[in-house]
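Honest question from a wet-lab person: if I give you the sequences of every part of a complex, can you actually get the arrangement of the whole thing, not just the pieces? Trying it with mine:
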Amino acid sequence: MFKRFLSLEWKQFSRSSYFQKGLAIKILLIFAALYFGGSFLVLGTTAFFILEDVFPGQDPLNVVNNYLIFWFLIDMAYRYFMQQLPVMNIKPYMIIPIKRETVIHYLLGKTTVSFFNFLPLFFFLPFSIVLLFQGYAPIQVIAWFFSMLFFTLSINYLNFLLNKNDKIFYTILTILVAGVAIEYYNIYPLAEKAGIFFNTIYEKWYAVLIPLLLMVLLYRKTYSFIRKGFYLDAEISKKTETVKTSELNWLNRFGRIAPFLKNDVRMIMRNKRPKQVLFMSGLFLFYGLIFYTQETYQNMPAFLAFASMFVTGGFLMSFGQLVPSWDSEYYKLLMSQNIPYREYLESKWLLMVVAVLISFVLSTPYIYFGWDIFGMIAAGALFNVGLNSFITLYGGVLNRVPMELNVKAKAFSNTQGFNPTQLLIALPKIFGPMLIFYIPYKLINFEAGIIFLALCGLAGIVFKNFFLNKIEKIYQKNKYKTIAAFDEKA
Amino acid sequence: MKKPNSTKTRKMIHVNNLSKSYNGTTVLHIDNLEIPKGQSFGLVGNNGAGKTTFFSLLLDLIQPSSGNITNNEVIVNESEAWKPFTSSFIDESFLIGYLTAEEYFYFIGELRGQNKSDVDKLLAKFEDFFHGEILQQKKYLRDLSKGNQKKAGIVAALIGNPDVIILDEPFANLDPTTQIRLKQLIKELASEKNITILISSHDLIHVTEVCERIVVLDKGETVKDIKTSEATLQELEAYFSR
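Yes, you can. This is the full assembly:
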C-alpha cells in the first residue's frame, strides 16, 4: 500500500504546475538546501574545536549540552512557522478499502522524512564523529547522538499537534512563557538545569530511553489525534474559525483609500500566510544586530547601510513584493468592480509606509550602537519610504503567481508567490542604497553618505505621484496577463 | 425607481464582430448582438459553448481577439466608465473569503458609493432570500456552504443600483426555495427597475421562466435567438436532445 501512496505522491509532485514551470526555482531551492545543509555540516565538524578555543578549560560537549535547550526551542519555533505539515488528500481514501491505520502511519512517516528533521543531523552527526575521534566513550556518544535524533523527531510530532490543536498550542506556549520568565527573573536557573539534564543523558548512556519514550509517546498521541479526526466532519472539512469583527472605523480618516486599507488589515489579521510574513518581518528588526556587533563591518559602512535598510524594510519587502498576489483569490472581483487602480496601489503603499514607520520607532534601541548607526537607520527608513516602496510595487506586477492566503508557506517546497523576477527586482533594492551611500562616503565622508541616502528617499516622496502614475500604467497594461495567471490555481 | 419606461427600447449592450481565440482556436465568435435596456437575457449552451468567455469579455477580464462590446456606449476594453453601472457575480473568486458577509457587503457598498445605512436598507429587503443563513453568522465567507456563498455573491451584485447585472449560473448550488425566490427577484429587477440582466444557465426550465429572450451558444457561435414564449422550452429541449 505504501508503495502505491508513494507513486501517487510522485505524480502529485511531478505534475503540479509549478514544478513544470519553475525549474529555475527548483534549482534555487536546491541551492538553498545545500547551503543550509553545508553550513550545518561545517558547523558540526568545526564546532568542537571552536568551542575548545572560545571556552578554554571547558568540555566542548558540556558547552553544547548547556545550550541544547535553546537549540530545541528555536527548532520548535521555527518549525511552527515554517514547516507545513504534509497534507495528504485523505478524502478519496475514506471510501475505499484501505485501513485507516495505514493511511495515518504513512502520513506520519512522511513528516519524518522532512528536511527539518535532516537539517539537525547535519550538525549532530559530524559533531558526534568528531567526539569519537577525540576519544569520547563510543557507547555514550552513540547514545547521545540517538538521543538528539529522538528529541528532534519528538519536536516533529509535537509540531503536528501544535499546528492542529489549539489547546495544546496554548498549553505549550504558556509553559514556554513561564519558563522564560522564571529564567529571566532568576527565580530558578532553568537553562542550567536543562544543561545538567542533557549532560546526564550523555553520562548515563541508557538515559537514551527517555527521549525514545518521549518520541514514541508523542507519535502515539499524534496518531490517536489523527485517528479521532479521521472523519469528514472533523479534520478534512475546513475548520470554521470564530470571527473577530471590528469596524476599523479609525481608518476612515484616510478617505477614499479607507475601504482598501480596512480590507488589507483584515487580510493580514485573518489569514495564515500574511501572518507568517508579519512574523518574519518582525525578525528583520534584529538584522542589524548581526552587522553592528561585528568589528569587521565597522570599516565597511556600505554593509552597515545594507543592514540598516533591512531593519526598517522587512515588512515592506516581504509584503510588498507580493502585492497583487495577496489579492489573487478575488482579483477578478477587484478588476470588474468600480475601483480605480490608483487608490488600490496607494493603499498598499500607505500600508508599507506605516510599517516602515513602526519598525523605525521600534528600532530606537539601536541608539545604543551610536548615533551614526541610528542616523543610518533613519536614512534607510526614508529611502525605504521614498524609493524602495515604489520599486517593490513595481516588482509586484511582474510577479504573477497566485497565492492561497490561508495556507502557510512551507519552506523549501512551496514556491507560491515566488518567482525569479523577484530576485532581479531585489537587486536594486539591496545594492542601490549601498551604492548611494558608498559613493558620497568615499568622496566626502560618512555624514555625506547618510544625508545623500536620506535625500534620495525624500526625492522619492516628493515625486510620489509621478511614480504611482507610472506604476499604475504598468499594472493596467498587465491586467489581462495577471488575471489569467491568477486564474490558474497553483 | 424613476427611470422612464420609454427608454426600454434603448440598446444597452452591443456586440460588434466579437471574437476570441486561443492559439488559433476560436472559442467565441459573435458578429452582432444587441441587448436593449431592461431586458432579461438568458444564455444557454453546453460546456465549452463560450458562455463564461462571453461574460468575461463583457467584464473586460479577457481581451477580445477582434471586435468589441459596448456597454451603454462605452467600449469595455478601452474605457473603465462602464464599471459604475455594471455589477456581476461570476464565481467564488468574486467573494473575499476572509470577510464576513456584512463586511463584504459594506466593502462593495463603499466601492459603489453607498454608505452603511444604504447597504443595510437594501439588505433588509433580502431577509427572506438569506433565510437567516448569511447575516450575523459570525462566519467568514470562505466557511459558508457553496449555496450560501452564492446567495451572498448575488445580493452583493445588487448593491449600488446597477443598470446591468451579470450572473453566471446563478441557480446552480441553490436550494429549491432560494431558486424560486431568485426567479422572482430577477423578474422584478427587469420589469420594475428596468435593469438589464444577463444570466447563463444549464437549467432550461429556469431560464425560460425568467428570461424574456434566450440565446443559444454552440461552439462559440449563436445558433438560436428566441423571444421567450410558451413553446420555447420545447424548442430548446428539442435542440439539445438532437
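Two things worth pointing out. Residues 249-487 of chain A form one domain. Residues 232-237, 410-418 of chain A have pLDDT under 50 and may be disordered.
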